[in-house]
């Protein structure tokens, strides 16, 4: 996907990322340490699509939050475009924030139900004080159309949209500040297969238009094989295997990888899809 | 009648009541402080249209009032003197919105006195005092509730949003306030303030005291809303765009608290009106000569007055529609809150 | 067990906190017991100073507080300036009367509202339910003050119940049984006022809890098995509703204490209410604090009893899951 936009320097680099937190046992008095992330190293090239695949509890969402600088890691660094993400402050931080946008799984929860679609989309512009009201409104129209939603719907509320349409709205919002990368945390989970296909198409389209870098986070290895240039398998806070989809499918090394492969429906039937 | 239908009636009713007391100067025929020592505890004046000879008068009228010859406590109508009730009569001065006015809605020919709700021990017109007194009681309740709610909002938001030590400390303080029976607390706070103070100071002090006692419950409820609102994904997304705490509180969290805020308002205001009435009734609130529904009821602590002069109960009776209106509103808001979320 | 100890500790902390708060308010008091005396030219400043020293009013606030706590630990609650007696003597008999009133009213209110609420919950939205709910709504809109006054008028006019005070003037002359009857007669009015005031709130809560409990799947299952109605109510529904109801019992103590304050004053029942009022008007410092502390103590005790009941009735709490 997007082979013509790939360059060689990593846009995002993660080094030695660790995140532990203390959790209280619900029924006893003990507290124990949860290692959500246990030493993660990643490099994502600009313009590429990277996928992190793991089961629930493997630390995927925590990683997404850390990389979007919404959670501080216990140890380790995240580099965006050669800048240390967690040492930035003030206006520099605001600038970098524009370039890493997060798309969530739960579309209903990701958009404030009291906002209109327009308010949802221009919120990032408002927060970062970009453009005048009129300019913001124009941008909202432009973005709606870009994600394939009629601009007449700008006055509607999120609950009036379907799940897939809400996700498009979220993408429109994420694009408002012209980011360079998107982190999509289980963005397709819960959507119908046909809708998933539409979303994939939209994202591919946007990637070549806007020169975007994608980080997908999912448990669906099958789907990720279609969209990613490189896949890393996450298990209990560690990356256990990493590589191109083709190699992983034909030659999985680790048991966790094999387990995920086996979980793909139709994998072992004669009609299983071919490797990309 | 549906909930929203009743709520509409309630709003109209409350608006009428508040409107009436705000226009007290215009609606009251007499000065609330004017005493008529010759007619203490007079019953409500009967208004007639047809006189003893069967003649219909142009305007409604009343007869003069004289004490009964055999019983000082009772009164008789003196048919020899009639006074007409006329509309838009110039009377005592009063001020409204900064203007000094003299027109009253209705008045009585001099030297007649129309006591629509009778008189008290000093011969003061209870109807006029009810209107003027309502200002004190209704407004005290409103302002005190506003105070409690604002305090509760601030504490609830700070506590819920920032969490940690502040949250713990504030919630423990709230527990303390909630642990005490509130009337005792009110009394205790009132006890430690100067006893003999001018009515104006008393009013503000009363409002401040009542208001500061009741912040705890709204604070707890609002904190709950803030806690859940804080975790919403759209708040997280906004933070990802670089939003400050202040922006998040103002734009995302505050609107969520409005529902609780309004419901609590509808519940607290009647409680606070009652608090003012109770304190003034017991002599701890607004005092003479300023009328308030509470101190108007004060004389009823003597049993013979309570038993003989039923019209003195008017300030207590008027509380019933006030309470009804606020309760209906609270129910309606509560229901809308739950289904709206 | 640990749960109960925690709740006990919690109650103690509340008491300590309240005592500190009350004492803090002392700081705000611009007037004190001796202010009026100061204005009297016949009393010399030295006399006032020595009186103040005698009552310990000349020491600083923390010292006063520590002294007070020490004496409370010994059972001494300070000194009443107005009565010239130790506060404990002044308060205790009054407190007993207030407890008598409040506890009886609470028990009666519960005794009436539980069957009534269950009745309404069972016949939800049918005639019986609507009538009781409407009745309770009507009662709710009548403020306590009006209720008390109305009852008094009724009593005075009809001469039905003894209105006012706790006993008739011939009290001392009557025998013990007649004494009890006499107190009971004086007692009826304030209790009625309190019960009528709190009944609607209890009723609402019982009804809501029972509606929830009756909607549980376990109840439908029981019905499906043909278990008789009464057994369902007592063995299935009521225990399920017990948890919120017992918690409510704890909270209701607070509102009852507040309500009783007013009712006692209006009906001249010699409880803590009238005493508190007098003490405020006389600036009798330690009596005021004593009354506030005692009422908080009742409240904390009531809540603790509710906690114990909860512990005994809800197995989830015993296991430490809550």
Could you write a compact summary of the structure shown?
The complex is a heterotrimer of chains A (about 280), B (about 350) and C (about 325). Chain A has 10 helices and 10 strands.
Please count the beta strands of chain B (DSSP E, at least 2 residues each): 4
Report strand order across the widest sheet of chain B.
1-2-3-4
Beta-strand content bin of chain B: 5-15%
Average pLDDT rating of chain A:
84
**Spatial gap, N to C terminus of chain B:** 24 Å
Could you say what the CATH topology of the largest domain in chain A is called?
Rossmann fold
As for the number of domains of chain A, it is 2
Helix vs. strand class of chain B:
alpha+beta
How are helices and strands ordered from N to C of chain A?
EEEHEEHEHHHHEHEHEEHH
The biggest sheet of chain B amounts to:
4 strands, antiparallel
Strand order of the largest sheet of chain A: 6-7-8-3-9-10
Structural class of chain A: alpha/beta
Approximate shape of chain B:
elongated
CA radius of gyration of chain A is: 19 Å
State the end-to-end distance of chain A: 10 Å
In CATH, the architecture of the largest domain in chain A is: 3-Layer(aba) Sandwich
SS field, number of helical segments of chain A: 10
Describe this protein with a few key phrases:
heterotrimer, A: 276 residues, alpha/beta, Rossmann fold, 2 domains, six-stranded mixed beta sheet, 10 helices, B: alpha+beta, 58% helix, elongated
Task: Tell me what the structure shows.
By secondary structure, chain A is of the alpha/beta class. Chain A has 2 domains: 3-99 and 179-262, P-loop containing nucleotide triphosphate hydrolases (Rossmann fold, 3-Layer(aba) Sandwich); 107-178, no CATH class. Chain A contains 10 helices and 10 strands. Chain A has helices spanning 60-67, 90-99, 107-110, 117-127, 133-146, 163-175, 193-210, 221-227, 245-250, 255-262, and strands at 10-24, 31-45, 49-53, 75-80, 83-84, 100-103, 181-185, 213-218, 230-235, 238-243. In chain A, helix 4 packs across helix 5, helix 4 runs parallel beside helix 6 and helix 5 packs across helix 6. The longest helix of chain A is centred in the last third of the chain and has 18 residues, at 193-210. Chain A starts with 9 loop residues before the first strand and ends in a 14-residue tail after the last helix. The model of chain A has no long low-confidence stretch (mean pLDDT 84). Chain B is an alpha+beta fold and 341 residues long. Chain B has a 4-stranded antiparallel beta sheet. In chain B, helix 7 (216-230) packs antiparallel against helix 9. Chain B is elongated. In chain B, 47% of the residues are buried. Chain C is mainly α. Chain C has a domain at 93-278: MetI-like fold (Orthogonal Bundle), CATH 1.10.3720.10. Chain C has helices spanning 2-28, 35-39, 45-54, 61-73, 87-122, 127-141, 144-158, 176-214, 217-224, 229-267, 272-281, 285-313, 315-318. In chain C, helix 5 runs parallel beside helix 12 (285-313) and helix 10 (229-267) runs parallel beside helix 11 (272-281). Chain C is globular. In chain C, 35% of the residues are buried. The interface between B and C is large, with 42 and 49 residues.
């Amino acid at each position: 996907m997007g082979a013509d936009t790939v360059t060689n320097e990593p846009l995002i680099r993660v080094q030695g990322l660790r995140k532990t937190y203390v959790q209280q046992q619900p029924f006893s008095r003990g507290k124990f340490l949860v290692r959500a992330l246990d030493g993660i190293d990643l490099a994502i090239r600009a313009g590429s699509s990277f996928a992190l695949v793991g089961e629930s509890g493997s630390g995927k969402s925590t990683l997404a939050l850390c990389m979007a600088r919404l959670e501080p890691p216990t140890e380790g660094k995240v580099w965006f475009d050669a800048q240390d993400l967690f040492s930035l402050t003030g206006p520099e931080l605001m600038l970098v924030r524009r370039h890493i946008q997060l798309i969530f799984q739960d579309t209903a929860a990701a958009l404030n139900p009291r906002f209109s679609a327009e308010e949802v989309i221009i919120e990032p512009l408002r927060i970062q004080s970009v453009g005048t009201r009129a300019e913001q409104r124009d941008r909202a129209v432009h973005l709606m159309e870009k994600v394939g939603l009629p601009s007449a719907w700008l006055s509607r509320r999120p609950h009036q949209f379907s799940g897939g349409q809400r996700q498009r709205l979220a993408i429109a919002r994420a694009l408002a500040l012209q980011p360079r990368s998107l982190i999509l945390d289980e963005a397709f989970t819960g959507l119908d297969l046909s809708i998933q296909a539409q979303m994939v198409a939209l994202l591919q389209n946007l990637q070549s238009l806007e020169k975007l870098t994608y980080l997908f986070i999912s448990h669906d290895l099958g789907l990720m094989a279609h969209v990613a240039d490189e896949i890393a398998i996450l298990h209990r806070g560690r990356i256990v295997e990493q590589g191109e989809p083709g190699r992983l499918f034909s030659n999985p090394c680790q048991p966790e990888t094999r387990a995920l492969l086996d979980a793909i429906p139709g994998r072992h039937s004669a009609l299983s899809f071919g490797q990309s | 009648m549906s909930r929203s239908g009743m709520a509409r009636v309630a709003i109209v009713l409350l608006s009428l009541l508040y409107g009436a007391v705000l226009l007290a100067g215009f609606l009251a025929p007499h000065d609330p402080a004017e005493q008529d020592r010759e007619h203490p505890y007079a019953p409500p004046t009967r208004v007639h249209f047809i006189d003893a000879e069967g003649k219909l008068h142009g305007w409604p009228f009343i007869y003069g009032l004289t004490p009964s010859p055999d019983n000082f406590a009772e009164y008789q109508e003196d048919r020899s003197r009639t006074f007409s009730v006329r509309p838009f009569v110039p009377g005592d001065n009063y001020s409204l919105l900064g203007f000094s006015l003299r027109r009253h809605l209705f008045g009585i020919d001099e030297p007649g006195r129309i006591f629509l709700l009778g008189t008290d021990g000093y011969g003061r017109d209870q109807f006029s005092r009810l209107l003027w007194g309502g200002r004190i009681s209704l407004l005290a309740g409103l302002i005190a509730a506003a105070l409690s709610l604002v305090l509760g909002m601030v504490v609830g938001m700070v506590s819920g949003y920032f969490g940690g030590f502040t949250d713990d400390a504030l919630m423990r303080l709230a527990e303390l306030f909630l642990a005490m029976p509130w009337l005792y607390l009110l009394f205790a706070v009132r006890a430690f303030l100067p006893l003999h103070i001018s009515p104006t100071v008393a009013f503000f002090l009363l409002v401040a005291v009542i208001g500061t006692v009741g912040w705890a419950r709204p604070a707890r409820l609002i904190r709950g809303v803030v806690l859940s609102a804080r975790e919403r994904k759209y708040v997280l997304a906004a933070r990802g765009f670089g939003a400050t705490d202040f922006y998040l509180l103002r734009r995302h969290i505050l609107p969520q608290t409005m529902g609780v805020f309004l419901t609590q308002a509808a519940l607290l205001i009647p409680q606070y009106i009652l608090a003012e009435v109770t304190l003034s009734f017991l002599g701890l609130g607004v005092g003479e000569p300023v009328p308030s529904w509470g101190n108007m009821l004060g004389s009823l602590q003597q049993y013979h007055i309570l038993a003989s002069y039923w019209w003195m109960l008017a300030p207590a009776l008027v509380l019933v529609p006030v309470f009804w209106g606020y309760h209906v509103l609270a129910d309606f808001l509560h229901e809308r809150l739950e289904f709206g979320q | 067990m640990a749960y109960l100890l925690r709740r006990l500790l919690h109650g103690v902390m509340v008491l300590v906190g309240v005592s500190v708060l009350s004492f803090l308010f002392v700081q705000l008091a611009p007037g004190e017991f001796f202010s009026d005396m100061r204005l009297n030219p016949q009393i010399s400043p030295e006399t006032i100073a020595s009186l103040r020293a005698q009552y310990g009013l000349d020491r600083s606030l923390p010292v006063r507080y520590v002294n007070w706590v020490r004496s409370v630990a010994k059972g001494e609650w300070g000194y009443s300036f107005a009565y010239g007696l130790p506060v404990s003597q002044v308060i205790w008999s009054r407190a007993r009367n207030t407890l008598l009133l409040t506890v009886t009213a609470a028990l009666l209110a519960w005794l009436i509202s539980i069957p009534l609420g269950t009745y309404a919950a069972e016949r939800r939205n049918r005639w019986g339910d609507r009538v009781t709910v409407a009745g309770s709504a009507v009662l709710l809109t009548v403020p306590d003050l009006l209720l008390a006054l109305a009852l008094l008028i009724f009593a005075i006019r009809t001469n039905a119940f003894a209105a006012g005070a706790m006993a008739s003037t011939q009290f001392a002359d009557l025998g013990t049984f007649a004494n009890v009857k006499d107190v009971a007669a004086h007692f009826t009015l304030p209790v009625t006022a309190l019960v009528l005031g709190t009944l609607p709130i209890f009723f609402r809560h019982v009804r809501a809890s029972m509606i929830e409990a009756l909607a549980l799947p376990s109840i439908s299952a029981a019905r499906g098995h043909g278990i008789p109605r009464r057994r369902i109510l007592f063995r299935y529904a009521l225990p399920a509703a017990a948890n919120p109801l017992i918690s409510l019992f704890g909270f209701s103590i607070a509102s009852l204490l507040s309500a009783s304050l007013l009712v006692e004053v209006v009906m001249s029942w010699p409880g803590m209410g009238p005493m508190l009022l007098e003490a405020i008007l006389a600036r009798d410092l330690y009596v005021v604090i004593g009354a506030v502390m005692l009422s908080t103590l009742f409240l904390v005790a009531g809540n603790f009893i509710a906690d114990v009941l909860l512990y005994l009735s809800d197995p989830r709490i015993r296991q430490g899951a809550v």
